[in-house]
Design brief:
heterodimer, A: mainly alpha, 2 strands, 2% strand, elongated, B: 2 strands
Chain lengths: 748, 496
């Protein structure tokens, strides 16, 4: 009972994307007129980041795709995830993702866009790892986060550089600065940053490997995030930046090259899969490659092809993913060879699968056919590498047709097979999505000019203002694109027929590839861990001696270096001060005691020698007329000597420590002498001039008159600088407390 | 009303004395600590309000005008730091109620905590270089005592490394003080700003400034001076490591910022480059150190280092935006880092350990998962959480200064922070609890421990979603730092 209620409640949450969908629909007429509306709210004006919103044809199209598929994905998930332990969390993540995605396509501020961009990355992480008990889900979630997160940081650098050059983050203000940006010496750098960001998100070669691994997510998530929406964020970004950074040779060459390679790679790898879901993931990579390739162009047909295919793909791919989800859910397997004859038990699912697959294969009357025609027209007019683009498009489409056949024919026709669960039709909430979306591909295909006028053209003109109207038609006449379409179908049919041998051959080849993105990622992770461990073991090796040696050595070098760099006068040789003989004797005595400390093999002897040095210091104070200081010094010295001597009695003798013959000791000596010399030289240098007596004079004059004390030192301690004395008292008290707590017996 | 400047110092000290009197009454100690932390927080808030509306506040202690007496000074930076200290102080005091053992309380936990906070506040407020030294001593002694309070072998070992290296920093600081006094005859920071300009040999001034750079660099955990930090921060009780991680190194960063804007503004050649190089290497070694760990508190400790690198990067770039970024980073980091340590205590309560391979299954605890996720991803710099804005401002300033390499380092270190945070998340939260472990798992976590974590998480979310006031405060602080004449004039007046 409770379960039914939560399912109903979950279904009701589909009203949220539905409401946004309706709101966006109301913007369509304005977008057709080419109008964009802008809103802006202050957010962080201090750093130029505001909640700027722009609603134009491109954002409306993306928004409709996001919310449209969103509604069905929510309905689907309500049943698909029923009974899951983290049911509520699932829908929280899903809706948060949906809202972030909407924010991403509506944002008109680079940084605001980036905020949503990263939010989708994080939610994708949480959703890929949703099956948290599964080790591969966890590590693949992290992989996706690290790859897209790295791309995100690169993208941020690009955005911040753009912001630095044009002095605004407003996206709608960038197009008019396009010439300024493209003339920058940094243009190629900025372009690389933005493209890497888009390529990682949209799974372009060589960053594509995270996407198939992301299939560890629950199937509705794969349908929504990893085929229909999030991976299109990179595409959206490329479209948005087309008028800003696009149109140059670097842009066109990179996009056509990378997109084409990605498309071919994705299509080939897809054929090699036997898991339905992974197969779909690779076809998504292929589709993303096609989209990138066409965004590389700058003619209206090429860009129209990109936008049209974006819609085509979102429709059929989300439907097919949901179909695979149903198959998995109802039969317990997604292995292509173990399923068959599902048409009898699952008619509605079959309908969704068939319509979606026919759109994917590009059958006439389906939107996929229109998409393919315009694609070939676009490829033929590409400014750079039209032959390559056309070949890539034809080959990818042929492979796609073959895969459509594999997915739609194999599991549904033929004799039924034994599956882990007896197949039966899914609940309506689950088949409604694929059936509706699949049917939409047919309806749109029959009325292409309607789609073109209301959805495609406004979106294209939003980032490609020089509009030469391109109409989507059911039939464009006998021309090159139609010929290429026939060629594609023929190739696709051929590939379908030889699919089994190809799959075996490909799987074999793939297993033997020396380098794959996945393996590079693993190697990178291992190298990072190794470097980190090695470096940290080296730096933080636990030896206090080494730590001090490093600190003192670095200090000496840095100080000497900075001194030398800034010195206006060369420090000459030290002038030997003219001292009376008695004082020379004192200094000599202290030096000798120091020598004893260093070479002494007995701790007690070393401590006694230290005492000599301390007492010598007291004598120096006495000589220079500070009897109270001398007294203090003597007291401290005596106490220290006694305490240290008591402690030392409990320590092992020095005999076992390294002696003079060890090179390490000589290095220690070098550092010690170095730091000593440096500090001595610096002290002599800075005290070379006469002392500024401004403060001293004040103390001398005011001590008796204003502070009523004759002993200036006392007055300084208790009056002029009483806060210091308070602090020192606290130190002494704390030391006492610390000593007490260290030595006190543990009770009970 | 400038007399209030002394409150954040004196009130905790008074509380320490009071707590010593009631040493055997834990409840009394706790209630008095809560009261004092609340007073400290209010005083900090009031101070910031005053400074923001009436300008820099100065208190000449004992009525002796600077530079003859000691001046306490609050500008935006100081007031912000005192306020944030109050926040962490309050959170830690509440947390201590459930976390600190009766044994530790008897041995003087609360008095030591109060003394530590008094010292920290003093360091933020003083306008006198020697007085700063005194507060550093107070902090060192109190923190050492807190570190070894439990008297375990690990604590003593970490404590020795901690105290020896920090004593060396103290020694350098004192030597530097002597030299500065020898050159100028004064110790007041504002006065030094004027006097040091008049010193004939810039080489000497530059060389002496390196003494302070090294001393404060040790305190703030800069590369290659940070050894004491990873050696000790994972050993004391969680509440102690939380206040250490939030505030101690940040006092060092504060001192660096204060010294190198007011006393030794980067005029000498090589110094700025040195600071920038240290910042970059600190970020890198810190984050790699974290990547090598598999114990939550050790991971968090190394991340303190890498993030100090970001703050010092802001100082090194020395532009208004960069310094504002450093200040913003300080505020964000103190809240998030102290909180993550507090959360590590919650995780230990649930899982019985800090070691990632021995715990798991925390994902089932929805609240705990949320409480960890927000500060962890804020630390990793994901928007729209506070860490993102901090990182973004610093990367933008690096780019504006043409420092592409530093911008790249800052971004890459951000990625490695994600690496570490997801390591904790994947292991402690997503991974099922290892079946071999028969941990002593407490099913009830005290509300005393959860409440401060929730409060700090809310603060992080607030800074993240509504950063404008914090950005404005940081910008004002940066302007004051880069143009210290108002500060100097307020403190020493016409005195030249």
């Amino acid at each position: 009972m409770q379960r039914t209620e939560s399912i109903i409640f979950a279904r009701l949450t589909a009203l949220l994307p539905l409401a946004i969908f309706a709101g966006l629909c109301s913007r369509v007429p304005a977008a057709v007129g080419g109008g964009a509306i802008f809103f802006s709210w202050d957010w962080i004006p201090g750093i130029g980041v505001n909640l700027d919103v722009a609603v134009d044809g491109l954002s409306v199209l993306f928004g409709l795709i996001i919310t449209g598929t969103g509604v069905f994905v929510v309905l689907f998930s309500a049943d698909y995830m029923a009974g899951h332990r983290y049911y509520v969390r699932f829908f929280a993540f899903l809706h948060l993702f949906l809202l972030s995605m909407i924010g991403l396509v509506l944002a008109d501020n680079l940084i605001t866009l980036f905020v949503f961009w990263e939010l989708t990355t994080v939610l994708s992480y949480l959703l890929i790892g949703f099956d948290n008990k599964n080790e591969s889900a966890r590590s693949h979630a992290r992989q996706a986060l690290l790859v897209t997160g790295a791309g995100g940081l690169v993208l941020l650098i690009g955005f911040l550089m753009i912001g630095g050059i044009v002095d605004t983050y407003r996206i709608s203000a960038l197009a008019e600065q396009a010439r300024l940006l493209q003339r920058q010496t940094n243009y190629l750098f900025i372009l690389a940053m933005v493209l890497i960001g888009a390529f990682t998100k949209s799974a372009q070669f060589p960053f594509h490997f995270w996407l198939p691994n992301a299939m560890a997510a629950p199937t509705p998530i794969s349908a929504f995030l990893h085929s229909a929406t999030m991976v299109k964020a990179g595409i959206y970004l490329l479209a948005r930046f087309h008028p800003v950074l696009g149109g140059t040779e670097a842009w066109m060459g990179t996009l056509v090259g990378v997109g084409g390679v990605t498309a071919l790679l994705g299509a080939i790898l897809a054929v090699g899969q036997s898991d339905l879901k992974r197969m779909l993931a690779y076809t998504t990579i292929m589709a993303l490659g096609i989209l990138v390739m066409f965004l590389g162009g700058k003619t209206t047909p090429a860009l129209t092809a990109a936008v049209t295919f974006l819609l085509v793909h979102s429709l059929y791919k989300s439907a097919l993913f949901l179909v695979v989800g149903i198959i998995d859910h109802e039969t317990g397997t997604r292995q292509i060879e173990s399923i068959g004859g599902l048409i009898r038990s699952m008619p509605m699912t079959t309908f969704g699968a068939a319509t979606a697959a026919m759109s994917m294969a590009g059958f006439p009357l389906f939107l996929g056919f229109i998409g393919k025609e315009i694609m070939y027209a676009g490829a033929l007019t590409e400014e750079m590498f039209p032959a390559f683009a056309t070949t890539a498009a034809v080959l990818s489409n042929a492979l796609m047709a073959a895969i459509a056949g594999i997915i739609a024919i194999r599991p549904f026709l033929g004799p039924p097979r034994q599956t882990p669960r007896a197949p039966h039709e899914a609940p309506i909430g689950m088949w409604l999505g694929p059936a509706t979306i699949g049917a939409l591909g047919l309806v749109f295909g029959i009325f292409p000019d309607w789609v073109g006028r209301w959805l495609i053209q406004p979106a294209v003109s939003a980032f490609h203002p020089t509009v030469e109207p391109v109409q989507l038609k059911l039939f464009h006449g006998f021309n090159e694109p139609l010929l290429l379409s026939f060629l594609t179908m023929g190739l696709g049919l051929g590939l379908y027929l030889v699919r089994r041998s190809i799959r075996g051959w490909l799987a074999d080849r793939m297993a033997r590839l020396p380098v794959t993105g996945d393996r590079l990622y693993e190697m990178g992770m291992a190298a990072t861990a190794r470097t980190a461990a090695g470096l940290t073991r080296f730096i933080q090796n636990g030896s206090l001696h080494r730590y001090l040696l490093t600190i003192i050595g670095v200090f000496t070098l840095a100080t000497a270096g900075i001194w030398a760099l800034n010195a206006t006068t060369r420090p000459g040789l030290l002038h030997l001060p003219s001292l009376p003989l008695a004082q020379w004797l004192l200094v000599t005595l202290m030096a000798a005691a120091l020598g004893v400390v260093v070479v002494a093999r007995s701790r007690v002897l070393a401590v006694c020698a230290l005492g000599v040095i301390g007492s010598g210091a007291a004598l120096i104070f006495l000589v220079y007329g500070a009897p109270d200081l001398a007294l203090t010094q003597l007291l401290v010295e005596t106490l220290t000597l006694i305490i240290v001597a008591i402690v030392l009695l409990r320590l092992p003798s020095l005999d076992k420590t390294a002696g003079l013959h060890s090179p390490g000791r000589w290095f220690d000596a070098l550092v010690a002498v170095g730091v000593g010399t440096l500090v001595a030289a610096l002290t002599l240098a800075v005290t070379g001039g006469p002392l500024d007596r401004q403060l001293t004079d004040f103390f001398e004059q005011n001590s008796a008159i204003a502070a009523h004390g004759r002993n200036i030192v006392n007055v300084i301690l208790v009056d002029f600088r009483s806060l210091d004395t308070l602090g020192e008292l606290v130190v002494v008290a704390t030391a006492g407390l610390a000593g007490f707590s260290l030595l006190a017996r543990r009770r009970r | 009303m400038n007399g209030l400047l002394v409150a954040p110092i004196i009130v905790p000290f008074a509380a320490a004395a009071l707590a010593l009197l009631g040493r055997r009454r834990p409840l009394f100690q706790h209630v008095s600590a809560l009261t004092v932390a609340a007073i400290h927080l209010v005083a900090g808030g009031w101070l910031l309000y005053q400074v923001h509306h009436q300008g820099i506040a100065v208190l000449h202690v004992g009525g002796w005008p600077a530079p003859f007496g000691i001046a306490l000074v609050a500008d935006h930076l100081s007031a912000l730091m005192v306020l944030i200290t109050g926040v962490v102080y309050g959170a830690v005091v509440v947390y201590s109620r459930a976390e600190i053992s009766a044994d530790d309380i008897r041995r003087g936990y609360y008095p030591l905590l109060h003394i530590l906070v008094g010292g920290i506040s003093g360091a933020f407020l003083t306008g006198d270089l020697f007085n700063l030294y005194v507060w550093f001593e107070v902090m060192l002694m109190a923190s050492f005592a807190l570190l070894v309070l439990g008297r375990t072998r690990a604590q003593i070992k970490g404590g020795v490394t901690y105290v020896v290296i920090n004593l060396f920093a103290t020694l350098l600081f004192l030597t530097g003080l002597g030299m500065v006094y020898g050159m100028t005859g004064t110790l007041n920071m504002a006065h030094l700003h004027l006097k040091l300009r008049a010193v004939a040999d810039p080489g000497q001034v530059a060389a002496v400034s390196v003494l302070f750079l090294t001393a404060f660099g040790i305190k703030s955990g800069l590369f290659p001076l940070f050894f004491w930090l990873p050696a000790s921060y994972h050993t004391p009780p969680v509440a102690v490591s939380a206040i250490f991680s939030g505030l101690l190194t940040k006092v060092g960063v504060y001192a660096l910022i204060r010294t190198f804007t007011l006393i030794f503004p980067f005029g000498s050649s090589g110094l700025q480059e040195l600071v920038l190089a240290a910042a970059a290497l600190t970020m890198i070694t810190g984050v790699l150190g974290a990547a090598a760990q598999s114990d939550i508190r050790r991971i968090l400790s190394f991340h303190i280092i890498s993030q100090v690198g970001y703050m010092v990067l802001g100082l090194g770039l020395f532009t208004p935006l960069a310094l504002a970024g450093a200040v913003f980073y300080l505020l964000h980091h103190i809240v998030v880092k102290a909180n993550l340590f507090l959360i590590s205590g919650l995780i230990r309560q649930r899982g019985g350990s800090f070691a990632l391979k021995r715990i798991g299954g925390m994902y089932a605890r929805g609240l705990l998962a949320l409480l960890f996720f927000i500060p962890a991803f804020s630390l990793a710099g994901f928007p729209p959480l506070s860490g993102f804005w901090a990182k973004m401002i610093l990367i933008r300033s690096s780019l504006d200064s043409g420092q592409f390499v530093l911008a790249g380092v800052a971004a890459a270190v951000g990625l490695l922070t994600v690496y570490s945070m997801t390591k904790i998340w994947n292991e402690a939260f997503w991974k099922p609890m290892p079946t071999t472990e028969t941990a002593i798992v407490q099913n009830r976590v005290s509300v005393w421990m959860t409440a401060p974590v929730v409060a700090l998480v809310l603060l992080t979310v607030c800074i993240g979603f509504w950063p404008e006031p914090f950005v404005q405060l940081a910008r004002t602080a940066a302007e004051e730092l880069l143009d210290p004449m108002a500060y100097v004039y307020t403190v020493v007046g016409e005195m030249r």
